[in-house]
Amino acid sequence: MPRVLTTCPRTDEAVSTCLRMQEAELAVMTETRMFRCAGCGHVHEWFRSEAWVERDPAELARLT
Ligand SMILES: [Zn+2]
């Protein structure tokens, strides 16, 4: 199951939301989610339009 990534509003870098789902599941998600950011340590809210499903397992490593 791929990870869901979003952009950290503090560092402007891609971070994992700690959730895993398929793109089709993300597409129908309507609620706002919270997660503790591995990039800056703060809790962020994210919404479907701000997130995407990881396509390449190396994506996070490359971006951070
Ligand atoms: Zn952050």
Beta-strand percentage range: 35-45%
Say which molecules are bound, naming each kind only once: zinc ion
Provide the domain count: 1
Cross-sheet strand order for the largest sheet: 2-1-5
Unreliable segments of 5+ consecutive residues: none
Shape: globular
Name the structural class.
alpha+beta
**Helices and strands, in N-to-C order?**
EEHEEEH
How many DSSP H or I helices?
2
Radius of gyration: 11 Å
How confident is the prediction overall: mean pLDDT?
A: 91
Largest sheet: 3 strands, antiparallel
Helix content: 10-25%
Beta strands, count: 5
Please report the distance between the alpha carbons of the first and last residues. Answer: 21 Å
Short structural summary:
The chain is α+β, with helices and mostly antiparallel strands. It has helices at 23-27, 59-63; strands at residues 3-7, 14-20, 33-36, 43-46, 51-53.
Secondary structure layout plus pairing:
Layout: E1 3-7, E2 14-20, H1 23-27, E3 33-36, E4 43-46, E5 51-53, H2 59-63
Antiparallel strand pairs: 1-2, 1-5, 3-4
Bound molecules: zinc ion (ZN).
Zinc ion (ZN) binds next to loops.
